[in-house]
């Protein structure tokens, strides 16, 4: 494991030039948040705080088993191979009474010890759940309340197959939102302001049984500048966790450089729109030959995620979603044989069905292909095919980690994260 107590992130304070040469050149004022830009000094070990936030109701048994079976390989990859100063925490959630009478959330604090991680995961089991939507909001709030290190990269892996309460799903036991009053969108904004990004792992095909679940988990990733991934098999969970963490750490290394370029552009051309600023920063980084490692896998595809992403509160999101026509959505489902019907399926009280054994981390990268890919060669170029493929649960079973030029999407995520923290 990395030595979490042996190093601390240092900060560099930018001062205006005091050179008094014969013809001094006017200097622009320093950017207002320049002193907040973190820099890596010497042999600083990159710090990563990683939290699993998991739905632990009856349908999630295979994903809980995958986490248990692969946690040692995950730690070896991130702490030993990548040499991150890694800490791990865990948040389990089910539902509020009377939908579930066991627990709402169960939190395990950050630790850098593998044995503690294994012990925490060992306490999880899949059972309960009632009306379909679950205590996602409470799980996010418990995640926010963990003791995150200020200087560490902060990643939440949100693993779920059901939406939060209050989105307008049929049969929702709490149609106006969680009984504890926690608004998941407000929590997401607080997470983003604290630099916590979410990698949503949507467990298909169950997630697509709901009208708005996929859109919510895409919005959760967008709101925190993370990514939203579609999984059709728990066997790929470890690859997604390590791939997402490694990509995020590569972006963390570029954060100070992006901030510096943004401050320079805004000082010299204050009229520039944000989109143009991001474009210019990306072109600068790309022309400099900067590469990042990028996780390639099936992504959750939005239909109405923007209606949630742009809403300030859950009530606003629910109001926005009332404009969506169920008839139009079902016509897309009916266009593909076997697509699920939207609704709020009752959760199994027993442990979820077994999946294929989880392969050790990295052994499965570049190695799995869906049985359906032989007849879906053009899926990358056809959003409609992709959407219907996900509705039917046919997800390409492949996760790879590729080295490539930094992308505009990555620069936009770095920009959004820095902006939400007040760094630019």
Automatic annotation (TrEMBL):
GO cellular component: cytoplasm
Gene3D superfamilies the UniProt entry points to: von Willebrand factor, type A domain (3.40.50.410)
UniProt biased composition (Basic and acidic residues): 370-379
Compartments reported by the entry: Secreted
PANTHER family tied to this protein: ALPHA-PROTEIN KINASE VWKA, DUF659 DOMAIN-CONTAINING PROTEIN
SUPFAM superfamilies (UniProt xref): vWA-like
Domain VWFA residue range list: 49-249
Pfam families tied to this protein: VWA_4 (PF25106)
Ranges in coiled-coil conformation: none
Pro residues: compositionally biased ranges: 23-33
Entry keyword annotation includes Signal: yes
Keyword match Secreted: yes
Record InterPro entries: HMCN1-like_VWA, Thr-specific_kinase-like, VWF_A, vWFA_dom_sf
Transmembrane segments: none
Location of the region described as Disordered in the Swiss-Prot/TrEMBL record: 1-35, 320-384
Top-rank lineage group of the source organism: Eukaryota
PROSITE patterns: VWFA (PS50234)
UniProt GO MF annotations: protein serine/threonine kinase activity
Keywords in alphabetical order: Secreted, Signal
Protein name: VWFA domain-containing protein
């Amino acid at each position: 494991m990395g030595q979490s107590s042996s190093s601390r992130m240092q900060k560099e304070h930018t001062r205006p030039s005091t050179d008094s040469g014969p013809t001094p050149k006017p200097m622009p004022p320093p950017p207002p948040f320049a002193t907040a830009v973190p820099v890596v000094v010497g042999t600083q070990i990159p710090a990563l705080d990683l939290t699993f936030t998991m739905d632990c109701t009856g349908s999630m048994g295979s994903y809980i088993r995958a986490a248990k079976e692969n946690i040692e390989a995950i730690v070896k990859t991130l702490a030993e191979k990548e040499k991150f100063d890694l800490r791990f925490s865990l948040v389990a959630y089910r539902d509020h009474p009377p939908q579930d009478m066991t627990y709402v959330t169960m939190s395990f604090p950050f630790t850098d010890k593998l044995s503690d991680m294994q012990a925490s995961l060992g306490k999880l089991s899949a059972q309960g759940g009632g009306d379909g939507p679950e205590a996602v909001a409470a799980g996010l709030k418990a995640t926010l309340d963990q003791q995150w290190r200020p200087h560490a990269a902060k990643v939440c892996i949100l693993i779920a197959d059901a939406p939060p309460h209050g989105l307008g799903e049929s049969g929702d036991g709490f149609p106006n939102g969680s009984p504890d009053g926690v608004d998941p969108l407000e929590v997401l904004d607080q997470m983003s302001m604290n630099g916590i990004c979410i990698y949503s792992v949507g467990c298909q095909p169950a997630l697509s049984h709901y009208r708005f679940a996929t859109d919510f988990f895409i919005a959760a990733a967008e709101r925190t500048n993370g990514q939203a991934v579609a999984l059709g098999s728990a066997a790929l969970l470890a690859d997604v966790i390590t791939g997402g963490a490694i990509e995020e750490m590569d972006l963390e290394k570029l954060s100070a450089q992006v901030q510096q370029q943004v401050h320079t552009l805004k000082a010299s051309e204050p009229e520039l729109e944000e989109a143009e600023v991001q474009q210019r920063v990306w072109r600068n980084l790309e022309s400099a030959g900067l590469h990042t490692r990028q996780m390639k896998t099936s992504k959750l595809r939005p239909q109405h995620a923007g209606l949630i992403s742009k809403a300030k509160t859950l009530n606003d999101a629910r109001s926005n979603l009332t404009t969506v026509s169920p008839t139009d959505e079902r016509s897309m489902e009916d266009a593909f044989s076997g697509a699920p019907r939207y609704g709020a399926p009752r959760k199994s009280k027993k442990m979820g069905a077994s999946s294929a054994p989880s392969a050790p981390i990295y052994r499965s990268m570049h190695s799995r292909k869906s049985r359906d890919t032989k007849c879906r060669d053009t899926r990358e170029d056809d959003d409609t095919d992709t959407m219907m493929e996900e509705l039917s649960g046919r997800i390409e079973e492949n996760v790879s980690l590729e080295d490539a030029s930094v992308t505009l999407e990555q620069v936009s995520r770095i920009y959004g994260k820095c902006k939400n923290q007040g760094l630019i």
